[in-house]
## 1
Amino acid sequence: AVIADVNRRPVKCERVRNRLNVLTTSKKVAFTLAEVLVTLGVIGIVAAMTIPTLISSYQEKATIAKVKKFYSTFAQACQLAVVENGTMNEWGLSGYEENNDKNSQYLLSDKYYASIDKFMNNIAKYMKAEYVPKRTLRANNKVEGGLYFNDGTYIMGIYLTPPNSCTTPVALCGDVYISTDGGVVTPGKNQFSFLFYADGKVRPNGSSKSVFNGNCKSGLNRGLCTAWLLKYENMDYLKCPEELEWDGKHKCSE
């Protein structure tokens, strides 16, 4: 038994020695500095290529959502205002006219501004928005005031047709221009327009092939791209206008 134990001992010691050799001679797996820098560079390039596209896509969807929300709210407010005050041709709205008083700080007449105030106040209470009376300062031709909403959208401009135009319940009485944010105003990107009629109906501007081709597609006035944006839910007229058709191709990717 003793001899057998002695004979086995070298074998056991040899196994232990082999294991120690493996542990002491094995190399640790790690990245070199060059490999890390190359990886970070690739990640940076991919990010630079994809992040702007993702941000642009998000901003476009946010803008479309704001325009759709405004359209629904504004249309409902106009209908309710007509129910309470009668059709807009009975509101006594005065059309656009210049101020004859050259010493005045305003470009437009007090009568016209009073009409704007009346229209805005009649609908503001149904839109849960704050109306700041609009005035155009003569010194710098800067428009101040508007109807402001919590999501950053606001009615930045309004045009009332002449009184002899808004005379029947179905007549066009004017249009409003909205901005979806407080940045630099760019028609078709963050500025859009809507038409309103005496009976309270509201329509997005540019809802015909001729208006789309002559203004939105051509770039002459992309504030009239509103109907396209709502109908097709994209702003591809900013990317590939020459490829789009009102009754044809609706997206650059098609």
## 2
Amino acid sequence: MGHTLVTEFDEEGIRKISNLLRSAGIRTANKIPFGRNTDREIANSALPYHVTVTHWGKQEDDYYLENLNHFQFYPCTVKADHAAVISAAENSLLLYLEIVPDKGWQNMMNSLHEATGAADPFFLHMTISVSKNHSLILDQYNALKGFEPFLLNVSGLALYHIWNPVKLVKTFHTNEN
């Protein structure tokens, strides 16, 4: 994987996520799926909680990096709706919050598609934790599963170089390129 474009949340949203995880007793969590050929510890400390908007492989970097200069970010809101668990790479489990977008999300995605041709994400979610320790993930899921859905303001997008080293490359906000 070359780069990933992810949501940034405003301070209130970050506080909501932190409070939810704290109330569920989740102190540390891995946000990067296995099999991505990245240093998971560095990646997890570099990447904030986010919704992945799009990603691409190294071989497509030049195309996407050039065309992102024509992308116009549109602020929007998403709802963290409920917790769920799915099987993931290398016999791991992935705990995530299902995300429901508002109309503004589609405006943002239309702008991104126009600039780059990027398709909508496979499924909108916020990874909370990934582990090969199934008991840990199921315990975390049980602690989260009854949370009250809440809204998150998407205040920008952040572009990360996703192979070693994981690092922030650029951010996109209203009236920025």
## 3
Amino acid sequence: MNQKKTSPEKPPTKPLSGVFLLLFLLALLVPVEIFCAKAAYTTLGDLAGAIYWAIVIVGNGLVFSVAIFSRVAASTMAILLGMAVIPYQIQLMQRQASVQAEAARIVAHAYEVKLETGEFPEDLGSYTFEQANTSPFIGFRSGEEVGGFLVTYFVGTEDTSHWYSPKDGWRYHPD
């Protein structure tokens, strides 16, 4: 009888492709998530900004913890975390850029009216919005109590305000 020698079975190895996929996802998503958490301070305020930071830190900590056991589950978690944090904040950052630019045009308009008439405008009746979709986020008041005029705007929540007045310049106050 001819017996073949059998070698002991090697334990299955996890493919490195799962590791590379996870590392790629984390290298791509984590910096964007951090950028979004920083931006949340000016779009949503300090409390929401802190919540964004907690979600990013705790969420990615969980991703790393799960990665020890399953690269697929960790990769899925990384994608879901990115989807939870990034899209809404990107939308708010785009809105902030539009609203901020419109507010700056309103400030310029107020100074132009003052040059022409000697007084700041009482309202925005003579102003035409370049981006009409920004008007719900912008306010305007005039009078001596606000230093001539006041342009206010918010992005994600009305509790967080940005403003301009001739006496104070551009300011921001979260929550």
